[in-house]
Amino acid sequence: MGRHLLLRLAVAGALLPGLAAAAPAPDTLTDSLRINGQKVPVESVSDTPLDGIYHVELKGGESFYANADGSYFVVGDLYHNEGDKLTNLSEQEKNQERAEALADVPDSERAIYRGVGEPRATITVFTDTSCPYCTRLHESIPELNERGIEVNYLAFPRGGMQSPAARVMQQAWCSDNVSEALSRAFDDETLSAGAGCDNPVAEQHRLGLELGVKGTPAIVLPDGTMVPGFVPPERLAAMLGLDNQPGAERQR
């Protein structure tokens, strides 16, 4: 089953038995859902714009769509097709969940880089000090700040928590000035701080996995949209709806 099937469901859902029937309460689906005869751990069940179709999220992050009694599944994204606009509702929901999860990370656990003026937009970046494209993005921070973009780093060691990069980032987060220490690490300087303090690197790595980070840098825009890989400052500014010229913030 692919995402194209969802479009067919939106038009012809009544053709499948049970899809157009009156649906019981979603908690019935939560309590009784079985796959191949085995009860599955359901995190949540929520309504969708399609009558009798629910969004089921399993513990662990997997999700799909199901009819009220769980006898039919659809795996993929749900789209709203209206006029000349096709909206990915599944992605919208993921973005909202991602933005809410990142909002819960306190400033004290972030490495924050901001310019002299009030930022016009803030991006969150899952980074790895051993990643060449992360280094390239870090080198563009002065220009990003000039454009009014504040950069908040969270740690995401690509090789896992046993990798050398994980230790380097733990050392950075154990330093008195995390942002300064990370900049030194990106310059291949050896950090003197130990990695044994109470630091959030492992927790941020887990968060990144939960939010769908698969590589670094992973840039998350204010609305929760995740953009993988390095993005040039002018393009990133355009994505944020900002003026494309450095220094625009100071001219306002």
UniProtKB/TrEMBL annotation:
What region holds the Thioredoxin-like fold domain? 120-240
**Which CDD domains does its entry note?**
DsbA_DsbC_DsbG
Q: Does the keyword Methyltransferase apply?
A: no
Q: Where is the Disulphide bond isomerase DsbC/G N-terminal domain?
A: 20-88
Per UniProt, subcellular location reads as: Periplasm
Pfam families assigned to the protein according to its UniProt record, in alphabetical order: DsbC_N, Thioredoxin_2
Q: Report the protein name in the record.
A: Thiol:disulfide interchange protein
